[in-house]
Amino acid sequence: MDLKLRQCFIAVDDHDKALAFYCDVLELEIRNDVGFEGMRWVTVGSPLQPDVEIVLEPPAANPDASPADKQAMAELLAKGTLRGVNFTTADLDTLYARVQESGAEVIQEPTDQPYGVRDCAFRDPAGNMLRFMERSGD
């Protein structure tokens, strides 16, 4: 079967803050910026993976979501309980220093894990947890 990941979605409450983090700090590139029905979706991705994108979308982006559902999503986002994505890098220490210097909330400092990776974790400006890992031997 020819199956590949194309896009994943991360809820953000402020696209400008999110873009400053994802583009200026993580050095992802903007691929698309679309407004529709009063909402905004911005697609970013790594120049090293032109066929994989992260869509930064509003919480409860479904225009048919009830006001209660939209409120619940906004509250979960504000608490930092929504998960983000995992990234790999060949130089975890340099990436950690860069992201920490940006002021992002550190969840976990670089740690050697028993399953063969060294990883760390931060929250993006919206509170989503992002993990960064370097495989042993990379």
Features:
about 140 residues; alpha/beta; 2,3-Dihydroxybiphenyl 1,2-Dioxygenase, domain 1; four-stranded mixed beta sheet; 3 helices; Glyas_Fos-R_dOase_dom
Shape: globular
Q: If helices are DSSP runs of H or I spanning 4 or more residues, what is the number of helices?
A: 3
Please give the number of β-strands.
8
Number of domains: 1
Low-confidence stretches: none
**At the third CATH level, what is the topology name?**
2,3-Dihydroxybiphenyl 1,2-Dioxygenase, domain 1
- Write out the CATH superfamily name: 2,3-Dihydroxybiphenyl 1,2-Dioxygenase, domain 1
| CATH C-level | Alpha Beta
Q: In CATH terms, what is the architecture?
A: Roll
| Strand residues, percent | 35-45%
Element layout with pairings:
Layout: E1 7-11, H1 15-25, E2 29-36, E3 39-45, E4 53-57, H2 67-79, E5 83-88, H3 92-101, E6 105-112, E7 117-123, E8 129-135
Parallel strand pairs: 1-4, 5-8
Antiparallel strand pairs: 2-3, 3-4, 6-7, 7-8
Give an account of the 3D structure:
By secondary structure, the chain is α/β, with parallel strands linked by helices. It has a single domain (7-135), classed as 2,3-Dihydroxybiphenyl 1,2-Dioxygenase, domain 1. The protein has three helices and eight strands, in the order βαβββαβαβββ. The strands form two sheets. A four-stranded mixed sheet has the order 1-4-3-2, covered by helices on one side. A four-stranded mixed sheet has the order 5-8-7-6, with helices on one face. The mean pLDDT is 92.
